[in-house]
Amino acid sequence: MFKIVASDLDGTLLTPAHKIAPYTRDVLQRLHQQDKHFVFATGRHHIDVAEMREKLGIPAYMITSNGACVHDADGNLVFQQTLSPEVIRSVVEMAKHDPDLHIHMYQGDRWMLNHENEALRDFHDSFSYHLYDVENPPTENVLKVFLTRDDQDHDKLVKWEQAFNESFGDKANIAFSTPWCLEIMDAGVSKGDALQAVAKALHLTLADCIAFGDGMNDAEMLSMAGKGLVMGTSHDKVKQALPDNEVIGSNADEAVAHYLEAHLLAKA
């Protein structure tokens, strides 16, 4: 029986309105009462996730920025891996000439953005961005850089993925968290490696983990966990990358919570 439950957030655990629904909250609280460890495993920033954890009302490890940061159940930072200044400067220099791109960074406790974009605030309750100058971008203590477009054109972002892979090789881990969000982390960063570190800290192994996700940034975690579940609404690339993994329903239907109640919660 699995002792650690790790879940991605957007497109997986959260509703399409980016909230933890009441039924999901109830299931996770009951899991905690039955001595299961819950782990947030997301591309979101740790400050953003800490607010969710507080509202959820249970202790939980937080894997954030796609594995660049890990906080324990008490909120202590236990792991952090930042991007090299060389990669950051190169990404910004390459991308700044496309006026349709939003170039984001998570730097320390701050979310940095090169353009105003009010629509992005809908993803967060109180965590908001600060603007920076692409001619003098932050390069220290940057956890990840990520690109979005207002038109959410996946094919145009794929061209950037190819360009970055050609430019950086083994210096960066580049993955889509959603079809419209391309993320760049240090080469040694992934949710899978972070989950392995969490399991070790709990004196358990990856075989004790069940994980849920919907993006290519979840692929390592879903392949490394004892059992990895793919959301039915995942992009075809995710399903093709993990052809042997079980596919479940939609985040709109709280498929993660329903699966956990059916397969992991002890019956009263």
TrEMBL record:
InterPro entries in alphabetical order: Cof, HAD-like_sf, HAD-SF_hydro_IIB, HAD_sf
Keyword line: Hydrolase, Magnesium, Metal-binding
Key word DNA-binding present: no
Metal-binding recorded as keyword: yes
Molecular-function GO terms, alphabetical: hydrolase activity
Named cofactor requirement(s): Mg(2+)
Family classification: Belongs to the HAD-like hydrolase superfamily. Cof family.
Alphabetical list of PANTHER family matching this protein: PTHR47267, PYRIDOXAL PHOSPHATE PHOSPHATASE YIGL
Name the UniProt record assigns to this protein: Cof-type HAD-IIB family hydrolase
Organism: Photobacterium leiognathi
Biological classification of the source: Bacteria, Pseudomonadati, Pseudomonadota, Gammaproteobacteria, Vibrionales
